[in-house]
């Protein structure tokens, strides 16, 4: 990824370490002073990102290429806002429970914005703000959660390899093969090969 590519992605994806406040989950929750996280740091945790043309997703050659290369055969859309999502309050609460999936979670923000929170290798929360044009892939086995920001709206394309499975496994689910693979592939590398106690 070249410097110009990174700069373009950083216009639609920003990440930072979160504070420990219990205030409204839709607030930015910056630390003081602010502590930003780079796209490279996210990639070290297995979080991949692209900037795509959200006004042209139906004919976007880059999206088509990513889908072909990564085998994303399934696609649908999910609109998250009080007016469009049935059982909105309950769903938002569920999305914000820390969980993992046994497959990648792929989201392409075609309108609005929201926060994906992921854990770093020291268990600290990183808040990833995705805006229109941002596509993000969370690896299988990563603990994460989602919430809207204070604009209360996101429309996201959901992609999947094969038939979609949206099952969330709320923490702790460290015994799952997807979690063990994630620790081996990303967290142990970070800690110089030492085992990380992911259940702490």
How would you characterize this protein structure?
- The protein has one domain (3-184): Jelly Rolls.
- It is built from 5 helices and 11 strands, in the order αββαβαβαβββββββα.
- It has helices at 3-10, 39-44, 61-70, 88-95, 177-190, and strands spanning 13-17, 36-37, 48-51, 74-80, 99-100, 105-119, 125-131, 134-138, 144-148, 154-160, 169-170.
- The strands form 2 sheets. Strands 1, 2, 3, 4, 6, 7, 8, 9 and 10 form a 9-stranded antiparallel β-sheet that branches.
- The longest helix has 14 residues, at 177-190.
- The radius of gyration is 16 Å and the shape is globular.
- The termini are far apart.
CATH homologous group name: Jelly Rolls
CATH class: Mainly Beta
Reported CATH architecture: Sandwich
* CATH topology tier name: Jelly Rolls
Number of strands: 11
Radius of gyration, taken over Cα atoms and rounded to an integer in Å:
16 Å
Judged by helices, strands and strand pairing, the structural class is alpha+beta
Provide the low-confidence segments as ranges.
193-200
Bulk shape: globular
| Mean pLDDT across every amino acid position | 93
- The share of residues in helices is 10-25%
What's the number of domains? 1
